[in-house]
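Recall the central idea of this unit: under ordinary conditions, the amino acid sequence of a chain determines the structure it adopts. In this exercise we apply that idea directly, starting from the sequence alone.
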Amino acid sequence: MACRVPKKGMSKGILSPLFPTTQRDVTRLRQSATDAVSDLSTAAATHANKVGNHLSRLADDLQKEGRTHFNRAQGRALDLARTSQQFARENPVACIGIALAVGFLIGWSRRRRSSEPNQ
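Accordingly, the structure predicted from this sequence is:
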């Protein structure tokens, strides 16, 4: 039996009787590829949801931890402010002396910088 090679432009209907097994294989291959793409997109969506949930829980945990640290730092700052106020009430002369000394040091340091030649 001689093999007939179809000419260009022949319709798909003419090829079907010539290569029925190949036609079925191509159809099955096309369906397998479609199924694989569907499975892949389903798996990707599932993993994306898992990652999203994990990141959401992680963000919540970080927010709680940050809030805890902030509250702790705020409490320490308030304690320091109360201690400073109490020290100032109990030792007003010492506070005035400390303020004068700090002011003198700042002024002296700025004066030295402004009198130094620029290099």
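Helices lie at 12-18, 20-90, 92-115.
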